[in-house]
Amino acid sequence: MELLKQESILNGFLRLDLRAGKYKGLLLCVRGVNGTAATADLTNLGNIKLTHQNYGERVNTTFQFLSERTNLVGGEADAVSAAGGAFVFAAILSFRRKFDNQNILVVDANVKTTLSWDGFKATAPAGIVSGTIEVYALYDNTGMQRYIPKIITAQSSVPSAMTLKESIPYPFVEELYGEDDVAIGNIQILRDGQVTHDGAWSALKSLSNALNQVEVAIDTVEMVAPSGGSPSNVRQTTFQLISTGALTGSVFTYHYMVCDPIQ
After folding, report:
1. Level-2 CATH architecture, domain 2-145
2. pLDDT digits (tens, 9 = 90+) for 224-261
3. Can you give the pLDDT at residue 75?
């Protein structure tokens, strides 16, 4: 593990061109001190993007999702904050899908690969005294680049009791997650036309927590995961959600990882 960059969170942004190397992921840490009446939390921590010169935008998601995926896939990530005291939040931006211990992202010296953080959201509490965001390289010189991951956060409008039908606009979706909401009733998920779940959202949440050994409640529910070490090569992933009322903010937020094979 190597520190690549440290930036004051009071600057409101971070931009980093990754140095040449073979990466299995990046560790992101936000730490600092809350003001007397301030308590930063995961929902405040803004967005993470990664852009590759040859492959375009590869990551456009939230720090919160990356932290909660870390909880689901790897183990509990730091998420501690006290009013008037210290806070620390951590997340791993992984270049590997679940159950894969070999894929890497190869960054060449002559191909720009840029990570960016857009600062705290407008909803962040006023009075944060100080802090930093740190980016650490997680190298793996023995791995192999077999695919280029793409991690995206999307939202769909759910302003009332309704049925929402969505199709992910990419093939090779290996992971799919949804943000929990009490107004979600049922969910049906199909992979290349085959039903993988059809029932209560609450049951899917229970299964996600159990299979991933979640001990501290989080907002993210695993909807689709790889079944093992080999890619699924699924071409179409769709879901149908039935709500009993308006969702929080009138939107359903979901996240997915696409693993585009190296040609």
Report:
1. Distorted Sandwich (2.70)
2. 988 776 678 899 999 999 999 999 999 999 999 999 99
3. 80
- Half-sphere exposure of 6 toward its Cβ, with a 13 Å CA cutoff? 6
Strand partners, 50: 59, 115
| pLDDT tier, 123 (very low <50, low <70, confident <90, very high otherwise) | low
CATH number of 148-261, picked from 2.60.120.730, 2.40.10.220, 3.30.70.360, 3.40.50.850: 2.60.120.730
Report d(CA 95, CA 77) in Å as an integer: 17
Q: Indicate if the alpha-carbon torsion angle 172, 175, 181, 186 is positive or negative.
A: positive
Say if pTM beats, i.e. exceeds, 0.70. Answer: yes
- The tokens of 123 are what? 């909803």
Is the separation of the CB atoms in 187 and 223 below 8 Å?
yes
